[in-house]
Amino acid sequence: MKPTLIAFAGLAAAAGFVLTGCQGIPAPGEKQARRDLVTVTDKYRPTHQPPALPELTPDSSLSNYLAYALFHQPQVAATFYDWSASVENITVTRSRPDPQLTFQSYIEDSLTSLMPGFAWNFPGPGKLKARAGVAAAESQGKYFAFESAVLQTAFKLKRAYYQFGLLEEQLRLKREVLALLENQERSIRAQNMTGTAALPDWLRVQSELDRARTELTNQEDSRGSLLENFKATLGLMPEQPTPPAPARFEASGEQVETDELLREAFERNPQLAALAADVRAAEAGMAVAYKERIPDFNAGLSVEVYRPPFYWPQANMTLPIWRDKLAAEVAQAQVNILAAKSRLKAGQIDLAVNFAQKSFACRETSRNVALIENELIPQSRQSVEVVQAGYRTGTMGFSAMTDAERILLDLQLEAVQARTDREIALAELSLMVAGVSPPGAPILSNTPQP
Question: What domains can you pick out in the chain, each with its CATH number?
Answer without folding.
Answer: 2-15+68-433 (1.20.1600.10)
